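Researcher: Structure prediction, please.
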Amino acid sequence: MFYKNSIEKIIEIYNRSHLSISKFASLIQKDRRTVTSWIDQMSDIEPSSSVKENICKTFRYPDYIWEEGCMGEDFLKSITQIPQKEVRIIDEDYTGRLKYIMEMEQNRRFVIQAQFPGPMYRDSAVQKVYRTRTSAEIEELKQGRIDQMLRYDYDTTEWYSIKSILSFCFASIGNFYTKEEKIAILDLIYELFNNNYNKKLFLFDSFSRKIYGMETTYISINVKQKVLFFKSPIESVFIEIRNKKLVERMHKYYSSPVEAPTHVNFLESVKIIKILQDALKYNNSLEQAYETINRTTDYGELFYNNLSIDLQKKVTPPKEGQRRN
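Model: Predicted structure follows.
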């Protein structure tokens, strides 16, 4: 079969789905009789555009599979392989990666951070991050990125796990910030995000859905340009994806109140940043910081989930009426 027309393509998609005709018909929102006539090749009536859209949406196929030029092996590759034009490997040195990020996040950004704080806030307090040599060009790019992020009108939405911010403040392993640097970073974030609707900070509970937590990597989503990129385990490599449906789905997951991980509302997140900053200033422990959060906010339960079993036994249980955004 050369898959020259839409019906031949639908037959192949149906055969690969291993679904009953009734189930297949319901998924693409078409009556069983019509689908049967296509499968049995008893009808040559061109399927409507809505049917084609439903098939692509249901099975996550690219829209171009219905084009006349997409037939034979090209069609089979389109429904069995990741389209090459939708995935790009960005393999650059530190300078190249900085330029790429600044270009992709030039006017706005929507990011899920792997750890707290984000690189820009870290770089503002800690001058030397990598053990490799720097250069005048790198320092100029870093400063340009910092200046970009510090603009009051720069649109940024940032997600951090509660685990990562508590580790930043209180962990004694893998934490190379001084007390003064921690306070300075929290102060910078508070000043940037407080009463600024161009900037939104979300703190999510990575233990709300999985007992052992949910790990993530740096993910930057540009829903307007339908592109996202994330850092691979190899430091020098970014993976860029331009699949419209995937980008929109990822953005919806972190922007929908229903689908998003359990989190602190962005209006309350800055209040918690201030509580943690004060805890560091006055040498309060993690337990004391939790007690303040539990007493003065509606998100004690989210922070309680991030405490060890032993610590949970020592602190006050979350008060009733907690929010679960």
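Model: The mean pLDDT is 86.
Researcher: Thanks, that helps.
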